[in-house]
UniProtKB/TrEMBL annotation:
This is Alanine racemase. The gene is alr. GO terms for molecular function: alanine racemase activity. Its EC number is 5.1.1.1. Pfam families: Ala_racemase_C (PF00842), Ala_racemase_N (PF01168).
Length: 377
């Protein structure tokens, strides 16, 4: 090896050894989650939503692992994500852009073999114009709004779209789709309202395959499956349905290093703003991750980390780069400089930390910062 490479290896190793947060991503567990969804969905197929860097876990690694499990349909939100992912996947994989076609992207999209999800007549016309310019037929997915008012052809554009399709077109529609607004809620009316609207659309646009379910939708039953589901969070170990036991296997664990310990006497202020005042003698540890690492500031005085199963409550405010926790429950000397505490793992799930932070698992995952040493298993 030449000396430049040696130096660069040594540097990488030093940074890795010096990392104070260790994020482990279990690609085998990801694969088992995918296969579980596949078996629930059969004969419908399971795609994978890998937007936002596969919910923060690394789109390239995740997509390649899922390709190895037989996944061929990959959904991202934005063209830039598709442009990064497309070249690293085999030709028989398809990459879809959920947020649709942006003016100016059409030719690049076509040439890179990226499939836009068309969300409006304007996008339909843009894509059709690109097909004319390239003198070929271009593939697309059509998304319909069935009650979320976010993306997709609105009801008032459907008649004109149906006419355009009847008159023959240079767009090859691969399938039609819609998205559920409340798929994680198994009770309530919105899912069945959206399903009813989707079956009207299927009547208006006969002969097309349909994609409907996200993770939650997979668990709503066959009626929601169509031919292709688009799970995201469930693949990554998040709970697909609210208020029910999570059937998915955790994929992510996170350990963070202690960077200082101390004992404080009653009356001592802890952290920014002196927001927490010790009521008794306390032993504290400062750990090396904060809101810049995706541990939300609203965990201040609320959340906890764990050490060998013992809960260590967060005291005072979460800082940008560190959090102070109460380690009084541990034997003295149990934690020292460099000890690792569990942020996500066997004692604290994504759902636990999301609940403490008043948010959802999606936001925790996608927020995990890039200062952690990432290890793929
Ligand atoms: C994000 C997204 C999904 C995946 O949703 P999960 O709840 O993570 O399974 C599926 N479809 C669309 C249109 C999305 O935007």
């Amino acid at each position: 090896m030449d000396s430049d490479i040696l130096v660069s290896h040594a540097r990488t190793a030093a940074i890795t050894q010096g990392a104070t947060g260790h994020l482990r991503i279990d690609l085998a567990a990801l694969g088992r989650n995918y296969r579980k969804l596949v078996s629930m969905l059969a004969p419908a197929r399971a795609g994978a939503v890998v937007k936002a860097d596969a919910y923060g876990l690394g789109a390239e690694r995740v997509a390649k692992a899922l390709y190895g499990q037989g996944c061929r349909h990959f959904f991202v939100a934005q063209f830039v994500e598709a442009a990064r992912l497309r070249p690293v996947l085999a030709r028989d994989a398809q990459v879809f852009v959920l947020n649709g076609l942006q003016p100016g992207n059409e030719i690049a999209c076509a040439e890179m073999d990226i499939v836009p999800v068309l969300n409006s007549l304007a996008q339909w016309q843009q894509w059709s114009a690109a097909a004319r310019a390239l003198r070929r037929c271009l593939p697309a997915v059509l998304q319909f709004d069935t009650g979320m008012s976010r993306l997709g052809f609105p009801p008032e554009e459907r008649a004109e779209l149906a006419t355009a399709l009847r008159n023959g077109t240079n767009i090859e529609v691969l399938f039609i789709m819609s998205h559920l607004a409340s798929a994680d809620e198994t009770e309530g009316q919105q899912n069945s309202d959206q399903l009813a609207e989707m079956s009207c659309i299927a009547d208006e646009f006969p002969g097309f395959d349909m994609s409907f379910a996200n993770s939650g939708g997979v668990f709503l039953g066959k009626a929601y499956h169509g031919v292709l589901a688009r799970p995201g969070i469930a693949l990554y170990g998040g709970a697909p349905s609210a208020g029910r036991a999570n059937p998915m296997e955790p994929v992510v664990s996170l350990d963070v290093a202690v960077v200082q310990t101390r004992t404080v006497s009653p009356g001592t202020k802890i952290g920014y703003g002196g927001a927490h005042v010790a009521q008794r003698e306390m032993r504290l540890a400062t750990i090396s991750a904060g809101y810049a690492d995706g541990l939300p500031r609203c965990l201040s005085d609320r959340g906890a980390v764990y050490y060998e199963g013992t809960r260590l409550p967060i005291v005072g405010r979460v800082s940008m780069d560190s959090i102070t926790v109460d380690i009084s429950a541990l034997p003295e000397g149990a934690l020292t400089l460099g000890s690792l505490v569990e942020v996500l793992g066997p004692h604290q799930t994504l759902e636990d930390i999301a609940r403490d932070a008043d948010t959802i698992s999606y936001e925790i995952l996608t927020g995990l910062g890039d200062r952690y040493h990432r290890q793929y298993r």
